[in-house]
Amino acid sequence: MAETGNLSVPAARRSNGPGLWSNPVTWLRIAIIVGILAIWEATAASGLLYRDVVPSLLAIGRALAKLLSNPEYYWHLSVTAGEVGTGLVIGGLLGLTVGIAFGASKLLGKSFEPYLYYLGPTPKIIFFPIMIMWFGVGPGSKVAMGAISCFFPIALSAAAGMRQIDEVLIRVGRSFRASTSQMVMKIYLPAMRLPVVNGVRLGLGVAIIGTLLAETKLSNRGIGYLIIQAYSLFDMPSMYAMLIVLFIIAIGANALVGRIGRFDAIKQK
Amino acid sequence: MATNAAATTHASNDILVVDDIVKSFNTADGSLTAVDHVSLSVKQGEFMAVIGPSGCGKSTLFNVIGGLVDGYEGNVTVGGERVNGPHPSIGMVFQEESTFPWRTVTDNVAFPLEIAGMDKAQRYERARHFIALVGLDGFENRYPAELSGGMRQRVAIARTLASEPKILLMDEPFGALDEQTRLLLGDKVLQIQHQLKQTCLLITHNITEAVQLADRVLVMTYRPGKVKRIVDINLPRPRSSEIVSSEAFGRYVAQIWSDLREEASRGMRDEEQQRAGAHS
Question: What ipTM goes with this model?
Answer without folding.
Answer: 0.88
